[in-house]
Amino acid sequence: MDSNTVQILIAMVCYMLVVLGIGIYFMKRSNESSEEFFLGGRSLGPWVAAFSAEASDMSGWLLMGLPGVAYWCGLADAFWTAVGLAVGTYLNWLIVAKRLRSYSVVANNSITIPDFFSNRFRENKKVLMLIASLFILVFFAVYASSCFVTCGKLFSTLFGVKYVYMLIIGAIFVLVYTFLGGFLAESASDFIQAIVMIFALCTVVICGTVAAGGLNAVVSNAQNIPGFLDFFGVATPEVVDGVQQVSGGAPLFGAAGSYGPLAIISTMAWGLGYFGMPQVLLRFMAIRHPQELKKSRRIAIVWVLISLAAAVFIGIIGRALYPTELLTAGASENVFIILSTNLLPPLIAGVVMAGILAATMSSSDSYLLIAASALSKNIYQGIVKKDATDKQVMNMSRITLVVISVIGVLIALDENSVIFTIVSFAWAGFGATFGPVLIFSLFWKRINRAGAIAGMVSGAAMVFIWKLLLKPMGGIWGIYELLPAFIISCVAIIVVSLLTKAPSAELNADFEAAKTYKGA
């Protein structure tokens, strides 16, 4: 290991120690009760709520997956994805945040998403809670695996150590500090990680642009690749067995492909996923006062716009500086690492690499904690053992953390996994399963429990059906599975709710109370 690599390692270890310190600092308070462990006692300020929501949402794909898409096939796919995400972020904070914060208190002080759905409809038999909890366990196991893939790729690329070893070490580290500190530790560390992430992105953009000879040189290089810089076209690398071909020291591309209205709508559908993301929705529920959400919204959207724009541009810069360095779709996700380690002083590169680690941990800790709450709080205490003590719930949650981590590691064992692909499936799963049900639950008085169950099950089922059976057919069937699944879920909610018994007077009273709620 040379001196540069040692300096990078030192910077990253220092960062990891700071994060562990945060977990230890909040350990005592988080263990006071399950509400403290899972929701932090609804005590988040506007800055922490905003930064932790976005950091936990974006994960390693922001620094690796999205730049990799831009590096591999150009601007269009990455750009329209970023636009959809930015719009979705804004609308989620604008429309959902305040009402969910209020309604979660009115609905028997719900502290998890399955809690909220169950209490919203005053369930006696916890069917809705069980369904929501099971889907959280399934999709968050997939999500956690994407984070572990990021850790494995990062450390194996930096230090030349076998991918599997680095994958396991990264998973253990995330598990330990989530285990210690719960939601408050997670949110506080996510606040720091959001700062590190945006610093890393902006630093690499500035240094990469200078190294490439300026903005004009980056743009000129991109314009020489057919479809690479088009909003309505896409670059098509010439590949053999998945590997891009090189001739005369230059990567080969075929004729530009089309990126038409259907592809744009499909890609922008990523924005719909925000309405069903538990890790973001919990921040809405945890903020200390509903009136502070307006400030949080402004902070969040500025962070998102800067981060997404920088991530897309990093992929374009990477093509100018290292056109033949990354010759597969999976390898292209290392463009951020290549730029950082080659262009920055080792200690600064270490901080920037900590940005990838930050992005990964800020998401994986959220996924693990929410999955643990789904099983221990909602299934174990809510259904299996209703008289379970807080201590028993906490013990069960920690067992769940370990189990989900092991499952995530097993899913992530293939080092050729493409982070963007893994994330897109889990994102669609949550967006279609919870998004429509949440929106209708907050804003449509006529929705009933039967409609909510129908929407949740049909949305989740359609994600699998479209992804595995219909999408491979291509053509119109090739659109992102989130869009059709979201629509099917909405239709199911409306039809089933109207065909079944109207909500009770008690449910209508809760709905009105949530509309006028002004409390802390």
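(ticket continues) Second input and output from the same batch:
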Amino acid sequence: MLSPQEHTVADKLVRLFHASLVWPLQIEPLPDTRSRGRHWEAFERSEQARAWRRIDDEFTDDPSGFHERHYREFVSFLPYVQRFLYGEARSAQGSADPQVGRSPMHIFRRNDITGLRLTLHEGQTPIELHIVHIDLYFFDDLDLVQLNLEVNAHDLPLDTARDVLFRFGRAYPSGWEEGGDGLHNAHLAEWLGPDGQVVARSDTQRREKYLSYVCQHRSPCISEHWARLLRPLVLAHSEEPGELRFRLIEYHRMPVMAYLALERPTSLTADDWVRLGLASQLHPEEAVPVNDPSVKEFDQRYCQDRFWTGLRSGPHTRFICTGNSLTVVGDANLPFFVDGERGVLAQFRHQYFLIFLIAHLHRASLLVFSDVLIGAVNALNIRDDDSVRLFKRRIRANFETFLRFTHRYWFHELSERPHVQATFRMCSNHLRNDALYEEVRDEIREMSQYLDSDSQRRQSNTVVRLTVITILGLIATVTTGYFGMNIIAFGDAPVSERVLHGLVATAVFVALVLYAVSRSQRLSAFLEAMSNERLSFGGKLSAFWKVFGKRKP
């Protein structure tokens, strides 16, 4: 039998650990030419992308490769979400165009990196995590890509698993400790190839690199091991050549999902649950801030306890969602929890991963729309006609893309399964997606209304000018009509004389019309003054002289 101390150690051992990062990045728009194509097409053509191969999804045309976990994933979602994730049915009766019916989501996967070796603290024994997959998700019509990196491990102490979740998935250091390590970063992170060789290492200790980059570009630089993983995508302000350039959207902390199978999850204390649920935010050595609202209301705010019961038979499964993290904790002794085909593990890696990805796709897309609006306004120079035209094109293009996003990607209901839908709503609510959508929609609507009102103003000014010219032309038409159209008869004159008179008359009339157009605003004011019955004759005369006077500076 195990002693009480040995029981405590075993209870806090994570038998199976999975962590999955979902990192949204903004991609700079490509030139709008047919030869360039869309982002994922440019990515596929790149010579540097040979390590990546495109996959439609894990659903193959071969029924032998289509497993029950894939089927369960598919039927968990509503039909319009299925069409977004997987596209339309492949059938002989479909369209001849291969693009018709395809999913707007394009996935690329690399298999040349198979492991991650983390040295959490200087002098500690490194931890090796197995990489399940590394994927990049591109989306039609969106200047956005999402990196998904999934790792797993066995038999990790709970404290170590929490430390991994806290330090894993940071794009750059937020500062430096006295010893020179990046603040809150792992001491060393190394990508390992299939042969165990190191492919790339983190460089968070290179303080001057990050300081000089921010000083020069007013933009953060990412660690070398993340830059190596993303190539041929390169940082926007980097001197590294590359057609596809990305920018960070939010804070350096990447959204993370975690799956922990414990010996006895019911033995965890309230502090243990808080540390697990807030593992990506709460320093492992920091005392639990008991007066913080997120701690005081932890169970009500972040926990989904539909499958967390006090019964001895289980299922002892708890979901904790803070928006930027989704943690699933359960009993390692229950086959259903650790079953990768039908159990919670399969759901975590399929259904719950997708709802987490969609929730962060929504937030990242809305932030990109907002950033495009800000960039358009900052680049606007109202005194430069070319700048004004470019501003209008950018705003209208952003508005059209937002409409496509709303009808193609924006969902409130993903599933009829209560727990799946409840988890998605909890994640979206913590990310403030609905409020952010309303803000961005109002901003775009205001911009669109401004463009419409500006177009109406220009049309109105044009109508005023045309009206003034018409009134002046009416005077000449009536006068010449009174004299029988031809005051001076040129019908019997030689051809050369008639041509000369025609050219002179045309030049005079063009000059008069252009002069009238240039003074059309003043003429319009004069005509309005003439129609004002309350205005005295002197006031009308003054309005007439203003037509020919100098414009006040």
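Agent notes: Residues 89 and 101 are 7 Å apart (CA to CA). The longest strand covers residues 13-27. Closing as not reproducible unless the customer responds.
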